[in-house]
Design a protein that fits this description.
single chain, mainly alpha, 70% helix, globular
């Protein structure tokens, strides 16, 4: 684990990328509330699942951001790094880690996919705009945030970012 990345050196860049995503999450939640309270409840529940599952993953990785600002995709480490303190002194297991990381990923994917149907019902341009924002965010995050994160060597997103960087630049970090 690279502790020279603590505190995270690109906090302002991270926040400038992530705050618009947080605003979009709230706008989508408001839309879902109007269209389907059940979809709204599921959507909000997925955020809770990601936050708790990711917090266990953070502890398992011995993430140096636990209890501090952490640069996790989509803004989830903002609560997860604090929640991780709940798991700091629990016994960790590979099985629980596998469950947590798969649950976090599936729930995160659900947060991205669930609104797509409702945005399509709203209009095709709303859906396409949403997809463009999500893809631009993901590309920006992988290119600018992950390469200087302390967990980039264990995090699946960080590993992907490092491979992309090595393909484009011809060198590994």
């Amino acid at each position: 684990m690279n502790k020279s990345c603590v505190p995270y050196p690109r906090k302002a860049l991270y926040l400038s990328l992530t705050i618009p995503m947080l605003v979009m999450y709230v706008a989508i939640a408001a839309l879902l509330w109007q269209i389907s309270p059940i979809a709204f409840t599921i959507y909000c529940g997925l955020f809770v699942i990601v936050a708790f599952a990711q917090s266990y993953v953070c502890v398992y990785w011995k993430c140096p951001y636990v209890g501090k600002f952490g640069p996790c995709v989509g803004g989830f480490c903002l609560p997860s790094s604090q929640l991780a303190r709940l798991f700091a002194h629990t016994r960790k297991s590979k099985r629980a880690y596998d469950t947590a990381i798969n649950l976090a990923f599936a729930s995160f994917l659900g947060i991205i996919v669930l609104p797509m149907y409702f945005l399509y019902l709203l209009s095709l341009s709303a859906l396409l705009g949403y997809l463009a924002i999500v893809l631009a965010y993901a590309a920006g995050f992988l290119w600018m945030i992950c390469p200087v994160c302390a967990t980039r060597h264990v995090c699946p997103g960080g590993q992907t970012a490092m491979k992309l960087h090595s393909l484009v630049t011809g060198k590994l970090r």
